[in-house]
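[Solved] Which block belongs to which protein?

Original post:
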Amino acid sequence: MILPWKFETTKYNCTVFDAPGHHDFIKNMITETSQADWVVLIIDCTGGFKAGISKDGQTREHALLTFTLGVKQMICCCNKMDATTPKYSKARYNKIVKEVSSYLKKVEYNPDKISFVHISGFEGDNMIERMFTRLEVLELCQRDMLKTGFIKPVMVVTFGSTGLIAEVEPVEMHHEALQEALPGDNVGFNVKNVAVKDTKCGFVASNSKDDPANCTSPPTPTLRSDCHANLPILTFSGSQWWAMSVPE
């Protein structure tokens, strides 16, 4: 998982999760996308476009996975427009918008509600003001997560479905230590004496003193209402755990 990055618009405080496009990272893409309110689909407008939009291409694959995971709001960034012939070719842009829109419609997106933005990551063109304008008109969606409670350092948690108990060490968001994480926060936290081999993505961390999760079925990356879930674990690196939100 690529670590999250934050920025603010006049309307929203945003957390960005980079979902790598390479096939080796498809699991990471699924994990990050499952948390999203919106998705920004990056499209190569140069020679890589044909491969991306082909039958087994990653542009098609990511669009389909995004819709399947319930993210219905999308912005399409037509990247590398500075490398078209001529530079920032309107004809090239229109062709890409037409082809991508045609596929998105098959996936059941409504192309009329999707913003297409021509950008240049290399030059930085349209990367800030234009993107912020597009984000401001989007709405937060209701994701499948619990939305109350907290987690803080020194709290003792129980991991479902194993019953493993551990003490929480530092809790961080965007590399900043927190005294307490609250609902909706995308946080990472460390725990003492827990090996990665003893855990899996989808386990649920709960306050050991308050009816902790006690799932007996195999873990999944979604919340289960019968687990009295507190904190769904989406991914981890070493002893660092990343969670989607902080529920009760």
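(Second protein starts here: sequence line, then its structure tokens.)
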Amino acid sequence: MDLHFKTYLEEFQQHLTNDVVFFENIKSEVKLLEVYTASMSNSMNEIYSGEGLKNIPLYCARARENLPLIQKSFENIKKAFPEEDFFKFNHAWKTHTSQIAEWVLLIVFLERGDLCLKKEFSEIIGVENESQLGFHITLEEYLFGYLSMISDLVSIFSYSLILSMNVYPNLFSFQIVILKMYRM
């Protein structure tokens, strides 16, 4: 066997071994992200229980309790692999990031009555907004979260109408958001 070819194969094998190690480090943090995302989801889905519409600020506060944990997980994921390999490993956490975006965007809307832009979302979860700056939120992750948040708002608004409960004024600004979206 050619010595040059053998060296190439050894380097390639080492590269694959490194990727396995990086992925194993990432996987444990992604499992934590899954737990935090489920916790946020459980808190926010309480809106649909009994007096849930009257307790929206409480459920938003409970869901926000997961944000420092999420920030820490993203910080650990960022340290788990070389920065230039971001897109090689991004598939491992992108679904959870989209779900986190859904809940954070919904929380911000219910608390303030306006939309959370991608830059603000990335600051909330402690990662970069732009790909040139390193570990970042992709536009795809943000937009999937945004679309899911709109679906959640429709559900909450419908639930509110069914119960004839006009207890949360920001739900009515939802109509304005829909009109703004159609004008984009």
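Accepted answer:
You had them paired correctly. Confirming on the second one: The chain has eight helices and no strands.
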